[in-house]
Design goal:
single chain, alpha+beta, Uridine Diphospho-n-acetylenolpyruvylglucosamine Reductase, domain 3, 2 domains, eight-stranded antiparallel β-sheet, five-stranded antiparallel β-sheet, 11 helices
């Protein structure tokens, strides 16, 4: 019996017994989301690159395939996953990458996970094998389920395999650093935003701003003249530390780590908390010491057109994700009921209601 057939039997048995299943790959993102409940459903045996055509810039792989394996295959053809997915540990899998929906420093300049998911094959909570999308960009008419799965944390089904769009590696890269205050950094980001600069990553922490430039040598030189600053010698290691949260900021103190996605021009909240800023101001990280500070950051994010997530923290009583408005929560409930009527797949992982 094939792996998928065995999985189908297990899902049907769990649904019949109303026994929850905890879908997990390498477990590198188990910290993310609400409670983890249910019997572990390990996806790593279903692995391997199914198809990769560098000329089409598309790779298709099974859910248990290590991200490192996919990235190595792309690197051999001088291509990359443009959204720069964080691994957060050894063995991170493609299925976990899509389910978590997390992107790295290149995200605002090259797209998010959901922007590059072209198609998926899914095993839902009824044991049905479903296919959505395909292997080209314009492959969907109506509701794009493939992209809905990005960030769904396994609550809608078990991703069996997925097709992702790749991009060529940048011809050249260079990172420059400037000493600027937080307000000065936000002003610079706003100033550069409308300009044709080849920015592919930004990071501000403790009055030090780093800007990665990617593209043709001439374009990088022009951007460097406009931005100024000193060249960062070991830039690859630096951006890896930001993406994988090995940067010194993420080790500061014992407080909870909050992640806020807001308008890039939003002023800082009136919360005294260590801060790291990415995505030209659109992504702010905070180290907070209390739930009250977390609530304040969440309220500030809402005011400024975004949302705040309790990314890492032992006390999740504040709720990991910002509560959805009534109509949007209704849509999510209906999706959950359609894909997982017995409610057995990662129950409560996103919201306690489902």
């Amino acid at each position: 019996m094939s792996t998928v057939a065995c999985w189908r039997e297990r899902v049907l048995s769990a649904a019949s017994a109303h026994s929850p299943l905890r879908i997990v790959g390498a477990g590198t993102k188990d910290f993310y989301g609400q409670v983890i409940a249910g019997e572990a459903f390990d996806t790593r045996e279903h692995r391997g690159i199914v198809d990769y055509d560098p000329t089409e810039l598309v790779v298709t792989a099974r859910c248990g395939t290590p991200l490192s394996e996919i990235e190595s295959a792309l690197a051999a053809e001088q291509q990359i996953l443009a959204f720069e997915p964080p691994h957060f540990g050894d063995g991170a899998t493609l299925g976990g990458c899509i389910a978590a929906g997390l992107s790295g420093p290149r995200r605002p300049y090259a797209g998010a996970v959901r922007d590059v998911v072209l198609g998926v094959r899914l095993l839902d909570g009824k044991g049905d094998e479903l296919g959505f999308g395909g292997r080209v960009m314009k492959n969907v008419a109506g509701f794009d389920v493939s992209r809905v799965l990005a960030g769904s944390l396994g609550t809608l089904g078990i991703i069996l395999d997925a097709s992702l769009k790749c991009l060529p590696q940048p011809r050249s890269e260079r990172t420059v650093c400037l000493d600027v205050t937080l307000d000065q950094a936000l002003a610079r980001f706003a100033e550069w935003s409308p300009l044709p600069l080849v920015v592919s990553g930004t990071c501000w922490h403790r009055d030090r701003m780093s800007v990665r430039l990617s593209g043709a040598t001439s374009a990088i030189a022009a951007a460097e003249r406009r931005i100024g600053g000193d060249v960062l010698p070991d830039a690859e290691a630096f951006w890896s530390s930001v993406r994988e949260q090995r940067h010194a900021f993420f080790a500061e103190g014992d407080g909870a780590l909050w992640r806020a996605s807001v308008r890039a021009t939003a002023p800082q909240p009136l919360v005294a908390a260590p801060t790291l800023i990415e995505w030209s101001g659109a992504l702010r990280w905070f180290r907070v010491d209390s739930i009250a500070q977390g609530h304040a950051i969440r309220e500030w994010a809402t005011v400024h057109g975004g949302h705040a997530t309790l990314f890492r923290g032992e006390d999740k009583s504040a709720g990991v994700f910002t509560a959805l408005p009534g109509a949007l929560m209704t849509v999510h409930r209906r999706l959950k009921a359609a894909f997982d009527p017995a409610g057995i797949l990662n129950p409560g992982r996103m919201y306690a209601e489902w």
